Amino acid sequence: MYNAYFGFSEAPFSLSPDPAFFYRSEQHEEALANLVYGVQARKGFIVLTGEVGTGKTTMLECLRDYLETQYYEFAFLFNSRINSDQFFEMIAYDLNLPCARTSKTEVLFALNQLLVEQAQEGRTVVLIVDEAHNLEWEVLEEIRLLGNLENRHGKLLQIILAGQPEFDRKLDAPNLRQLKQRVVLRCELEPFTLADATEYMETRLEKAGMSEQTVFPEELIADIHLRSRGIPRIINAICDNLLLTAFAQELKVCTREMLDEVCQDMRLEWPGMRRLQRVANESFDRSTY
Ligand SMILES: Nc1ncnc2c1ncn2[C@@H]1O[C@H](COP(=O)(O)OP(=O)(O)O)[C@@H](O)[C@H]1O
Ligand SMILES: [Mg+2]
């Protein structure tokens, strides 16, 4: 909507997990390197956790790109609210297994064959499950069993489970202890620091065609970082709304007032917000006497 007004070639703060906009903060870089290493070294189970909106799905999309360029066979399950029949059906579909996809026995047989074939060629197969915190126990148990398949060189199937922090807590449950013990690599995505958030916003604007950004003054960026708690998805939503507001007001630079309005519209809450509001109300009360 505002792209032409600011001279962007595409929307800089879209909410889609587009690897083309991937910003490699130190921790994102490290987490991605860990995922790639885990696959290459055939480590078996890898868990990626992070709060909602910290970039897990985007990172998995980057991993998908990597797997594709390296011609790995992989299945990517992004819908985790499934039962075990659907689980096997989806794996069979993604890996294009030549079998009756609704028969668990046939799927397991065909999968095993694929794993062995790939292993003979010195390759491995990857299963990625996003939103793993939603997985039912019975599906987690099937996943654990798949993770047992191995030859003398390592695991035959590399399993990457990405989910919100409660997934880690779920793995603490007594019936999932066996799965937890098999997790050899863990990566966690934390919200951005101010320095990262600043670079993140600049990188996105640059990718959209604004190389030296002039729309967000430095103090405003610090405020956006505070109010978003450093979470990329919230940063995107705030920035998108800010740009829209500036466009509506025919201004080229976003302001603190616009940010207040946007945060109010978004019903956003952030640390220290109530204290600031109290101070503002008190000084308002005093001025009315
Ligand atoms: N490192 C990053 N580089 C670029 N964009 C990111 C990054 N991390 C998160 N985002 C953006 O933040 C939003 C939320 O990311 P997403 O991967 O959906 O988070 P999650 O899956 O953890 O909830 C998306 O718009 C995504 O493009
Ligand atoms: Mg996600």
Q: What keyword list fits this structure?
A:
single chain; 289 residues; alpha/beta; Helicase, Ruva Protein, domain 3; Rossmann fold; 2 domains; 7 strands; 52% helix; 12% strand; elongated; binds adenosine-5'-diphosphate; binds magnesium ion
Overall pLDDT metric? 94
What is the CATH fold-level name of the largest domain? Rossmann fold
Radius of gyration: 23 Å
Order of helices and strands: HHEHEHHEHEEEHHEHHHHH
**CATH H-tier superfamily of the largest domain:** P-loop containing nucleotide triphosphate hydrolases
Which class of secondary structure composition applies to the elements?
Answer: alpha/beta
Overall morphology: elongated
**Unreliable segments of 5+ consecutive residues:** none
- What share of residues is helical? 40-55%
**Count of individual beta strands:** 7
- End-to-end distance: 45 Å
CATH class of the largest domain reads: Alpha Beta
Bound molecules: adenosine-5'-diphosphate, magnesium ion
- Biggest pleated sheet: 5 strands, parallel
Total individual domains: 2
Structure report:
With 289 residues, the chain is α/β, with parallel strands linked by helices. The protein has two domains: 3-8 and 192-288, Helicase, Ruva Protein, domain 3; 26-189, Rossmann fold. The chain has helices spanning 3-6, 26-40, 56-69, 84-94, 104-120, 137-146, 166-170, 177-182, 194-207, 218-228, 232-248, 256-265, 273-288; strands at 45-50, 73-77, 125-129, 150-151, 154-155, 157-163, 183-189. The strands form two sheets. A five-stranded parallel β-sheet has the order 2-3-6-1-7, with helices on both faces. A two-stranded antiparallel ribbon has the order 4-5. Strand 4 and strand 5 (154-155) form a beta hairpin. Helix 2 (26-40) packs across helix 3 (56-69). The chain is elongated. The relative contact order is 0.16. The mean pLDDT is 94. Adenosine-5'-diphosphate is lined by residues 15, 17-18, 21-23, 28, 50, 52-58, 232-233, 236.
